[in-house]
Amino acid sequence: MLEDRTTEASSPTVWPAAYPRGYAVVDVETTGLARDDRIISAAVYRLDARGEVEDHWYTLVNPERDPGPVWIHGLTSEVLDGAPLFRDIAEEFAARLDGRVLVAHNAVFDWQMIAREYARAEREAPVRQRLCTIALAKELALPLPNHKLESLAAHFGVVQRRAHHALDDARVLAEAFRPSLRAAAAGSVKLPLQECRPLTEWADRPTARIGRQVRHGGYPVTSWRPSRKRPACPYPNPGRYEDGKPLKQGMRVAFSGDTSTERELLEDRATEAGLHVATSLSRLTSLLVTNDPDSGTSKVVKARQYGTPIVDEAAFGQLLRDVAPADG
Q1: Most C-beta atoms within 10 A of its C-beta, which of 13, 111, 259, 286?
Q2: What's this model's pTM, rounded to 2 decimal places?
C-alpha cells in the first residue's frame, strides 16, 4: 500500500468537477526506443478520482526478439521466453486502462509503445486521454533540478527501490502523482491532458498489413510499413514559417522526438500537403515540430542556434489543415 505523504489539509474539500474520474498510472519497459521496439514488461496502478490506489497489476511480455539493453532493465531472453505474448495479455491490460486517463512519466513514449502493440494485435487500447507527469510538474512549477522520475520522487520523499522495473517505477509514479494531483486540485489548475489516438489508421492503408522481416540481434522483427524513399517535393522552399501565418507548400519541415500520431503517418500528411519532409535540420529548415522543445536533441539544439521556428504536434496539425499554395 502506498504511504500517504500529504496532510488532509492538502486535499481540497471541493474537488474540480472537470477532473477525470479515474487514472491508470502506467510504466512499460521496452527493447529500445524505436518504432519497431517491443514491450517486455508492463505495470498499471489504478487510482480513483482523487489519486487513491485501487489495485495494481504487473506482467512480463515475450517480445519475440532480442530483449535489448539487459543492463538497464535486467530482463534476459531466458526470463522472457516463458512470458506471455502481448496479444495474450492485451485483454487484461485493456481492462486496467478502460475508462481512465493514462498517466506516465514522458507519457507520449508509453502511449506510443502501447498503441503500437495493440495495432500489431489488431486491436485498440481503450484510452482516449493521457497525462504526462513531466507536464504536470511544469504546470505546478515544482522546483525540480531536471525532469527525471527520480527527481520527482525525491521532491515528494518517495523511495525508489528498483529503478527501471516497471512495477516499482509505476508505484513510485503513483505515489508522486497523488500529491501532484491534490496540489493541482487545490489550486484549480487545469490538468495538461492530451488526446490519445489509437493507430487504427494503419488498418485503413494498403501497406498496413504488409510486414517486412528485418534482423535485429539475430531475431526477426516485423516492420509495419515498408521502407520507401519519399518523392522529391515539387515546390521551391519559400523560406521560414512565420507565426500567425499559414504554412506554404515547399516549406522544409523536420520532426524531433515522439509524436502521438505515428511518425510516418504524420510525415505522409505533410508530404501530401506539399511540404518537404527533411530528415535533418539546417539553416534552410522552415519549421521544427517537437513535443519537447526543452530536450537536448541535436535537431532542437540546431533549431535554437539557427533561430528555426518550433511548434508542437498539435499546432502543426492545425497548420496542416490550411497550407497555402506555392507561389506561381
Answers
A1: 111
A2: 0.64
Residues 27-73: tens digit of each pLDDT? 999 998 777 889 999 999 999 999 999 999 999 999 999 998 898 89
What is the rounded distance in angstroms from the CA atom of residue 100 to the CA atom of residue 234? 45
Could you identify the residue written with the cell 489539509? 9
Residue 250 lies inside a defined structural domain of this protein: yes
- Neighbouring C-beta atoms of residue 166, cutoff 10 Å: 25
The answer to whether residues 175 and 323 belong to one domain is: no
> How many of the other CB atoms lie within 10 Å of CB of 273?
16
Are 233 and 170 contained in the same domain? no
How many residues are there in the chain? 328
Q: How far is it, in rounded angstroms, from Cα 41 to Cα 114?
A: 11
Give the domain extent around 283. 225-328
Three-state SS at 316: helix
Give yes or no: residues 166 and 288 share one domain.
Answer: no
Measured CA distances, 89 to 70, 125, 315 (Å): 22, 12, 35
Whether 219 maps to a domain, the answer reads: no
